[in-house]
């Protein structure tokens, strides 16, 4: 026995003498980067609700009540989120004396302009029920059973929302409730792919083509079949990642970053990595947006009301004239994640011949936190009060609204009456710009921009001097180089 | 036998392990060099050129004279145009080296060197027949000539304008289409001065320039370059200066001048597309020579986004040319040699890293040297003294940062391979493979084959087939600095008729004579059709248009003879074309070890150089800086291939190079040994069965100390693995499951362990004196060896006892002694030395080269490996000749060996247990 042990020991020593040097001297591969998939969240195990949920449901609130029996805290969690409140906590902004809240609920954009006053249509995308039971601007945000669980959790083919945030007519509430699960792209997309009033209208980088995307359209959702929540990680119904258009400042901790998963130095090319201090990932990896479905880039409300013959992509009597574009090349500006300015109802505009920035992303070449970032710019001609010099928010939907009576004056007076937006009786048209950050539709690495797309005598897609450089930084040097 | 006490053995073990570890740490070490600065960059094209008057040849403002402009006068107002012209090989094109003679080439440039693709031959003064005179040279070669040089100056140095029209002087003679030779009046046509605008205007009108030349209106060619700029306009077919473009003083308001861009160079050199538009290729003719001859396309665009029908295009998401993508201009590498920004000042004293004494920018602008830095291409030999004046890859790029972490033997690879070998792995556009001028198509063109496409192209300048691209052939290039790296090439084969003229000089058959032989009016001559037209359609298709029978050859030869051409015969030329552009990076470059280190190595990859060979013709490589060691072969379809043989070039590629005799001999030795022991074992086995078991007295002896057993088994383990990994390195194709670079690393580390183990063992044997056991004693050695041999050949089968007693003090019989003596003194040291030299070939290349280089060292290393393998077989077999089959091995494991008590010598030395 002892002899056998000795022989075994001898063998081990022999092998050690051979293997230890091999292991020790093995060439170390320095550039191995961790698999980004290691950093993705785990999906919760799906619990089939087919046999858990029982009817019978007379109202959508019955469904919510049933949900709350087992998930008692969830409505309260949801009611903390901007998906429910549609407005931020009060923030101080330099151009106002009092803190203000910003959000869809109380501010305007340059698409359909205002949700407030247009609850019948706009609240189709609010996760609350029963907007019809309250006067405009007086919705009760504290009723737990008005939280719409189904819009996010029901299978998309079983559920849809209709007027005033209520389920569309004909929805089988029991079938929808039995189908609940983790939110899919269909759930999120039912609102976010249709922002601005239709497929792809608003964002440029979000539309229904992402329901079944190819690898070329979106490498995350196409090649790897990501859910929205794989990046927009969600804890207690707080969904990470917010759009800057309806905010002033966003805490970086609340934002989704590419680096959440792609944590190492991502390129094996030092020259490309040298860009990372000044160029956002999105700039090169999203060369164009609206690649399959077109997005709206221009909207002239002043042309509305004519009987020119309606066409979805060029003119509608209720909305005016507009332009849809496909394969939109983004515009590039410095961006540090915040807005420098966000138009708030009541803000005075400078001059009628100067375009108004509904939002203006913050950052410039001297801001070390800012990077060059791609944006879709929405260019709109919309109404303003020529006397008070403020943008106007017409009532469009419903009785007395513009879409009903085609009378702007009436629509503004109605807004003054319902929402308290002062109206002098004189209105005109003014050009407004709104910046939409582009961050979806990431293409496979091979399709990313390359040097000549931005650099060189042909100029490419960057206006270097407008960005604050003396000239092409490939020749004049980058902003952190000694000049 | 002195037995070491156990404590000392343990210490020895510890010391041994420590020494092994230290030795290995010291032995293998990789150093990282510091990064060198990146490439220099040129500023944007300037738009600050001051306004100036455009002058005609008389120095008069063209607004007044209405005459064509003179660049020499116009630009000469500020710049030293004479200096510029005289320092420009683009203008000279070989004129200053022109030397007529019996050979085909009278100069190293396009003026005087016969280009078998253009085919027209610039006739020499004494030639019997005139092919190209200087005027017609301008109409052909001159379309891609910047002017000046031979377009203004005759071969004797006189101005062309001073030469009297004379049909016997090739400078003033013109071969009319009817075959008559006419005198040329240069004063009527004018001459073409060096055309500054062709390169220094953003959008020169090259089409108008070429058209004007072809109209034989040489004087206006340079002026026509400005058409479309608003400076000059065409009114009723006449060029008229536009007064609106000039100010009240007659000065040009906005001179459209700039530094030459890639597009300017592309006008004459090949396809350049710096735009953001979809890239399409139309013209594959030699009007785009760089593209047509090699497939090089200069563009920053991704290949996947081009409009060309390239197979598997979607996956090619990289640019055509990484330098174009990264914003380099042609002039960043091919810079003016006295440009103060770029100039190398190579003659600066050694202690100066940077010589600040350089040309003032003003002086440079006055006299910018228009000889540009150039590389070492195989096809262009003009201004050979400037070869290598360009910065090479390594002048801007540091090799270590991108390679050291994955490429073993970095220096060795860099010494043998040019960067292009791996960084231009594939061409993605068609390139010419063969021009066959022995035949003519109905429209007077040669029979052309492109490579890199599917099937056969229709005509010479359109390719509509699927583009498959091709891998360039790797050939050894003789650099001016003495280095000889492998570099990628295309090889173009041309076949053509030559004849001996009245002076006995070989000259190519003129195109006009070829047409006379082949064509009759709009179609082929009847005699030709009778022999060539196999399918009787009165036209000749690709398969018919080949001189593949003696009948066809003699028909053409006789028709040429009938024109008075003496001794017409077919010759072939193989011209390599360097490929230095279309560089790619990172994963697109060749990175896999087994691309080269395999039986089917990239380095030995053959290139089809001719789809067919005209009957009886042979082709020779054109003289160049390329070395062609290798073999030609033809396949079953008659296509000719050239396969390089790197071993013959002195490049031994592990896993690819084969020295067959060594492998055969080694294998023979190994298999012979195997057969030998098998036969011996069989006879032994049979003889044991036949005879009665003889009882020998068995005794147990403590034969091997712990350390002896350790070093022995360590050596066993290491050598077996060394042989195995060595075999994989030698023949990776047989072991595809093993990673090549991993195997090489393992082999090297094992070798280090082996050497250290051997050294420590040697020290041990020397220190305790056991070494004497290995030294044969001269006295009576031969007799004793014979006794031992007799025993193995006879006695062992009879069951005789071992003739020599094995004792701890005398472990080896005479045969073992002589074997180990040879093994340890010859084979092992030789193996260690050759191995170390192979390993060190990159660290101390001189040492390795002084010992014959890898082509000698590597085969010796393989041979010894075979012999060591054979030794192991015999050695293992002989351990079975003890009292039992395993007793010797058992002894080597435990230290205690069972031995027969010899009846001859009795128990004299053993220690009874």
Task: Offer a few descriptive terms.
heterodimer, A: 483 residues, alpha+beta, eight-stranded mixed β-sheet, two-stranded antiparallel sheet, 17 helices, globular, B: 913 residues, Fumarate Reductase Cytochrome B subunit, three-stranded antiparallel β-sheet, 19 strands, 10% strand, disordered N terminus
Note the topology.
The complex is a heterodimer of chains A (483) and B (913).
Chain A (H helix, E strand, L loop, with lengths): L1 H24 L34 H11 L3 H6 L2 H4 L33 H4 L27 H4 L19 H6 L6 H8 L26 H5 L4 H4 L2 E2 L2 E2 L30 H4 L7 H5 L9 E6 L14 E2 L3 E6 L5 E5 L3 E4 L13 E2 L1 E3 L9 E15 L4 E2 L10 H4 L2 H12 L7 E11 L13 H4 L9 H4 L5 H4 L7
Parallel strand pairs in A: 3-10, 8-12
Antiparallel strand pairs in A: 1-2, 3-5, 4-5, 6-10, 7-9, 10-11, 10-12
Chain B lengths: L5 H22 L34 H4 L5 H4 L6 H6 L2 H4 L41 H7 L32 E3 L5 E3 L2 H4 L6 H5 L5 H9 L6 H4 L7 E4 L2 E4 L20 H8 L19 H6 L27 H4 L4 H4 L27 H6 L26 H4 L2 H5 L6 H7 L2 H5 L7 E6 L10 E5 L21 E5 L8 E15 L5 E3 L2 H8 E2 L2 E2 L1 H7 L17 H13 L3 E13 L14 H4 L10 E4 L8 E3 L4 E2 L2 E5 L5 E5 L15 H31 L7 E5 L3 H25 L9 H29 L12 H18 L15 H26 L5 H6 L3 H25 L8 H8 L1 E5 L13
Parallel strand pairs in B: 5-8, 12-14
Antiparallel strand pairs in B: 1-2, 3-4, 5-6, 7-8, 7-15, 8-9, 8-12, 10-11, 13-17, 16-17, 18-19
Helix pairs in contact in B: 1-26, 21-22, 24-27, 24-30, 25-26, 25-30, 28-30
């Amino acid at each position: 026995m002892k002899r056998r042990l000795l022989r075994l020991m001898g063998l081990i020593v022999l092998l050690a003498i051979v293997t230890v040097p091999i292991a020790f001297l093995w060439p170390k591969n320095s550039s191995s980067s961790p698999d980004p998939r290691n950093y993705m969240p785990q999906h919760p195990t799906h619990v089939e609700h087919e046999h858990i949920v029982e009817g019978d449901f007379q109202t959508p609130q019955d469904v919510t009540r049933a949900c709350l029996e087992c998930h008692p805290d969830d409505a309260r969690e949801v009611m903390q989120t901007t998906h429910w409140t549609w407005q931020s906590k009060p923030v101080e902004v330099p151009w106002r004396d009092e803190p203000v809240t910003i959000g869809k609920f109380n501010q305007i954009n340059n698409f359909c302009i205002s949700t407030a006053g247009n609850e019948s249509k706009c609240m189709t995308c609010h996760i609350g029920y029963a907007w019809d039971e309250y006067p405009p601007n007086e919705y009760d945000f504290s009723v737990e059973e008005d939280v719409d669980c189904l819009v996010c959790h029901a299978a998309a083919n079983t559920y849809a929302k209709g007027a005033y945030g209520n389920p569309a007519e004909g929805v089988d509430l029991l079938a929808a409730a039995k189908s609940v699960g983790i939110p899919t792209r269909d759930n999120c997309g039912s609102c976010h792919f249709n922002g601005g009033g239709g497929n792809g209208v608003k964002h440029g980088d979000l539309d229904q083509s992402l329901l079944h995307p190819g690898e070329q359209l979106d490498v995350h959702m196409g090649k790897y079949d990501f859910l929205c929540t794989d990046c927009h990680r969600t804890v207690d119904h707080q969904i990470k990642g917010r759009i800057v258009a309806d905010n002033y400042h966003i805490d970086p901790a609340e934002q989704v970053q590419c680096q959440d998963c792609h944590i190492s130095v991502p390129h094996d090319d030092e020259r490309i990595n040298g860009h990372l201090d000044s160029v956002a990932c999105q700039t090169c990896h999203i060369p164009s947006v609206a690649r399959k479905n077109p997005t709206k880039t221009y909207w002239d409300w002043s042309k509305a009301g004519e009987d020119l013959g309606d066409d979805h992509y060029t003119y509608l009597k209720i909305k005016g004239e507009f332009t849809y574009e496909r394969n939109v090349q983004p515009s590039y500006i410095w961006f540090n994640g915040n807005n420098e300015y966000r138009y708030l109802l009541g803000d005075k505009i400078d001059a009628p011949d100067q375009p108004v920035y509904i939002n203006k992303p913050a950052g410039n070449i001297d801001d070390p936190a800012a990077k060059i970032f791609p944006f879709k710019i929405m260019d709109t001609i919309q109404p303003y009060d020529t006397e008070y010099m403020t943008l106007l928010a017409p009532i469009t939907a419903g009785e007395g609204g513009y879409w009903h009576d085609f009378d702007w004056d009436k629509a503004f007076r109605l807004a003054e009456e319902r929402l308290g937006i002062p109206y002098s009786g004189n209105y005109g048209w003014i050009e407004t710009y709104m910046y939409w950050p582009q961050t979806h539709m990431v293409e496979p690495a091979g399709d990313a921009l390359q040097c000549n797309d931005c650099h060189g005598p042909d100029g490419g897609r960057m206006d270097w001097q407008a960005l604050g450089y003396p000239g092409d930084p490939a020749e004049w040097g980058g902003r952190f180089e000694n000049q | 036998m002195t037995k070491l006490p156990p404590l000392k053995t343990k210490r020895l073990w510890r010391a041994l392990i420590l020494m092994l570890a230290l030795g290995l740490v010291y032995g293998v070490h990789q150093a990282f060099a510091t990064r060198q600065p990146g490439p220099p960059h040129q500023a944007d094209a300037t738009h600050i050129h001051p306004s100036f008057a455009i002058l005609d040849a008389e120095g008069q403002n063209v607004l007044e004279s209405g005459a064509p402009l003179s660049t020499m006068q116009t630009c000469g107002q500020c710049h030293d145009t004479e200096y510029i012209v005289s320092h420009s090989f683009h203008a000279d094109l070989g004129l200053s080296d022109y030397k007529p003679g019996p050979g085909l080439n009278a100069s190293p440039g396009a003026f005087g060197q016969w280009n078998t693709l253009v085919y027209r031959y610039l006739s020499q003064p004494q030639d019997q027949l005139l092919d190209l005179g200087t005027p017609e040279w301008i109409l052909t070669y001159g379309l891609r000539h910047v002017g000046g040089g031979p377009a203004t100056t005759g071969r004797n140095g006189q101005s062309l304008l001073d030469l009297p029209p004379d049909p016997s002087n090739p400078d003033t003679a013109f071969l009319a289409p009817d075959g008559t030779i006419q005198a040329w009046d240069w004063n009527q046509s004018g001459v073409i001065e060096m055309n500054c605008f062709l390169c220094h205007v953003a959008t020169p009108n090259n089409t108008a320039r070429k058209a004007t030349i072809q109209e034989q209106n040489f004087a206006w060619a340079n002026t026509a370059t400005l058409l479309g700029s608003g400076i000059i306009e065409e009114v009723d077919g006449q060029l008229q200066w536009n007064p609106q473009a000039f100010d009240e003083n007659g000065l040009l308001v906005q001179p459209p001048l700039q530094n030459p861009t890639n597009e300017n160079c592309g006008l004459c050199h090949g396809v350049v597309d710096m735009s953001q538009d979809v890239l399409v290729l139309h013209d594959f003719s030699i009007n785009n020579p760089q593209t047509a001859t090699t497939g090089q396309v200069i563009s920053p665009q991704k290949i996947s986004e081009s409009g060309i029908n390239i197979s598997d295009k979607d996956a090619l998401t990289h640019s055509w040319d990484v330098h174009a993508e990264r914003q380099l201009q042609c002039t960043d590498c091919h810079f003016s040699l006295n440009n103060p920004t770029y100039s190398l000042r190579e003659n600066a004293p050694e202690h100066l890293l940077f010589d600040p004494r350089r040309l003032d920018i003003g002086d440079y602008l006055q006299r910018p040297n228009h000889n540009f830095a150039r590389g070492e291409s195989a096809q262009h030999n003009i201004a050979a003294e400037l070869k290598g004046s360009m910065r090479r890859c390594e002048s801007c790029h540091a090799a270590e940062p991108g390679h050291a972490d994955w490429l073993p033997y970095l220096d060795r690879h860099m010494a043998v391979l040019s960067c292009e070998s791996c960084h231009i792995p594939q061409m993605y556009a068609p390139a010419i493979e063969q021009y066959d001028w022995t035949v003519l198509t109905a429209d007077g063109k040669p029979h052309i084959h492109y490579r890199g496409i599917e099937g056969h192209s229709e005509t010479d300048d359109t390719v509509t087939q699927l583009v498959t691209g091709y891998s360039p052939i790797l050939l050894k290039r003789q650099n001016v600095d003495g280095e000889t790296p492998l570099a990628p090439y295309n090889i173009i084969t041309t076949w053509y008729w030559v004849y001996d003229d009245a002076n006995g000089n070989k000259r190519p058959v003129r195109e006009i004579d070829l047409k006379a032989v082949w064509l009759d009016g709009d179609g082929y001559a009847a005699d030709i059709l009778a022999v060539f037209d196999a399918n009787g359609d009165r036209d000749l298709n690709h398969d018919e248009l080949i001189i593949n029978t003696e009948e066809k050859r003699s028909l053409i030869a006789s028709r040429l003879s009938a024109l008075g051409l003496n001794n017409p015969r077919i010759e072939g030329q193989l011209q390599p074309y360097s490929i230095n552009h279309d560089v790619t990076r990172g994963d697109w470059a060749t990175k896999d070890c087994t691309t080269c280190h395999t039986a089917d190595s990239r380095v030995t990859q053959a290139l089809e150089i001719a789809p067919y060979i005209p009957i009886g013709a042979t082709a020779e490589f054109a003289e160049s800086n390329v070395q062609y060691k290798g073999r030609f072969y033809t396949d079953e379809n008659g296509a000719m291939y050239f396969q390089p043989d790197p071993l013959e070039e002195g490049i031994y590629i592990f896993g690819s190079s084969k020295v067959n005799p060594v492998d055969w001999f080694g294998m023979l030795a190994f298999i012979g040994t195997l057969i030998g022991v098998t036969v011996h074992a069989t006879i032994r086995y049979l003889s044991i069965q036949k005879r009665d078991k003889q009882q020998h007295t068995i005794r147990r002896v403590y034969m091997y100390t712990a350390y002896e057993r350790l070093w022995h088994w360590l050596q066993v383990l290491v050598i077996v693995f060394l042989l195995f990994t060595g075999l994989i390195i030698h023949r990776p194709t047989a072991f595809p499951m093993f990673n090549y670079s991993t195997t090489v690393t393992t082999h090297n580390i094992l070798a280090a362990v082996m050497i250290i183990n051997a050294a420590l063992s040697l020290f041990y044997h020397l220190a305790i004196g056991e070494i004497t056991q290995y030294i044969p004693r001269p006295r009576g050695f031969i007799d004793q060896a014979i006794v031992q041999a007799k025993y193995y050949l006879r006695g062992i089968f009879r069951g005789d006892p071992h003739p020599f007693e094995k004792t701890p003090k005398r472990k080896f019989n005479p045969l073992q002694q002589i074997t180990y003596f040879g093994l340890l003194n010859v084979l092992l040291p030789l193996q260690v030395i050759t191995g170390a030299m192979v390993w060190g070939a990159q660290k101390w290349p001189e040492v390795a080269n002084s010992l014959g280089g890898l082509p000698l060292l590597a085969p010796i290393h393989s041979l010894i490996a075979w012999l060591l393998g054979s030794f192991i077989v015999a050695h293992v077999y002989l351990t079975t000749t003890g009292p039992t089959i395993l007793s010797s091995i058992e002894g080597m494991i435990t230290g205690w060996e069972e031995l027969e008590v010899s009846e001859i010598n009795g128990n004299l030395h053993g220690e009874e247990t």
